[in-house]
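G.,

No rush on this.
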Amino acid sequence: MLNSYDFPITMNGGKTIMNPLAVVIVVNWNGKDYLRDCLSSILSQDHDNFRVILIDNGSTDSSVQFVKDNYPEVEIIALDRNHGFAKANNIGIKKAMEEEARFIALLNNDTKVEKRWLSELAREMESDTKIGICASKMLKMDNPLMLDSTGHIFIDNMICERGGGEPDIGQYDKQLEIVGACAGACLYRKEMLEKVGLFDESFGSYYEDAELSWRAYKHGWKARYVPGAIVYHVRGGTTKKNMELRAELRNQEIANLLTTIKRHATIRQRIRLTLIWIKEA
């Protein structure tokens, strides 16, 4: 088994510099139509010390066979049924930890990443040992001039996605500290996850990333937005055709939001949020 510093990347004053091992986890559920773009772009990364694990949530569209036939270098963990986004990612994260990964990247199956995506995230993570989360610059796949997410921040005392739906006119091209990251395309430090825990599996498939971001923030971990780590995202690619499922997930999202507030918000934040909701009602 490789350790977390196996591949030399450059020489600096005669000293060999190594890239830390990163494991990229892709959770898939009946998303075969998206996997070619997603996996091909991951495997073209210029970060030369990484592995890819596909966690398949009981797909029935031959996704697993497609990956076996076309991407033999991708490790596959095929689950018996759809366990939800949070649990499936946790299974992958635990596997990555066993493989001594220093960094763990999560990527949705309906994404495509630019060549320097992983190396940009890893370089920033390496710059400060207190950085536990790095967020990507996520753009809409069907219109790359529109933003999808640039990380989690606090708005009106609530943790929210930043930039989603806005035109990309350079307003988010500066690196800065934020609260956390959308788990559709992010990087976590293994040490941070070991100390604060993984996703709350009861959340299923929504708001689990925001809850983890807030939890890590409360434990003193930094999060950094990395604008050079560019991702194109369909958003909802594997659920948009199933309206019944989307409605169910929307209800789950609201319940998870309320749980997150109850778990992490201060009394002052709860009061302010209540006043805002009363005003908007």
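When you get to it, here's the other one too:
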Amino acid sequence: MGCKNSKHGREEEIWTSAHAHASSLSQASFGKAENNNAKKKEIITKSFHETKTRKLATGTHFSENDCVVLKTLFDSVTHEDNAIDEGEFVEALFGKKKKLELEKSGSIGSDSKNATNDDDGDDETTKNFYKKMFCFEKRLFEKFDSNDEGYIFFDEFVRTLNVFHPRTSTKVKAQFAFDLYDVNGNGSISREELKTLVQGVMSRSVFLNLDDQAIERILDNTFEQVDIDKTSSISFDEFYRMVKENRKCIANMTIASLTTLSTEFPEFIFNDASETHD
């Protein structure tokens, strides 16, 4: 009887030990598989980003390293949704201070992806002033937002920013500038379209704070010289002719520092380029 119980206990002990060993092996295998899956996912993710930056570098004047730096800048202002809205765009290119000024204008909310503006009690004169003041940034955002979705993905950001690279051709820069001024997209720049953007640039420039009469004189001279066929609008051919004669008129289409991107690059890269308009 004692032998039977002893034998039974021994068998139970062996079974328990074997079960524990098998369980341990199973957990170890599961843990190893989980680690392998995590590592595989990390490799796939890294490969995807490397392929994407390589592709962007191939189609632009940016190197793969430049694209990595730009991704760091892009990620620093977005909220983990892989896209930036107008406020985040302004923060990336012009800095946090400019974003706060844009919010103050009522053009965007403090969280422009979700916020709605409350106009009650706002001074309309002040709002209109800020609306003119930031029309350059708003038009720039519209040009970067190639799909007209209200937000910008990283590839749109890099490809459009490439226009401002010093090695991009004058004609490409001229076409971008022309489209920027051609607000209604009808293929020509009207006096009113040009005036709106010039006023926006002038209204916040430290060096070019001109009154309305001075701006009107600038417009008179511009159309007199550029509007060759006297249609009261400027075609791209007329605009490009002006650019070739005086490249300073699109000086704000070049950001020299895009050739020296590094991980220590400042939080914004536009550095009031719009104020260099001549």
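The beta strands are 83-84, 152-153, 189-190, 233-234. The chain has eleven helices and four strands.

Enjoy the weekend,
O.
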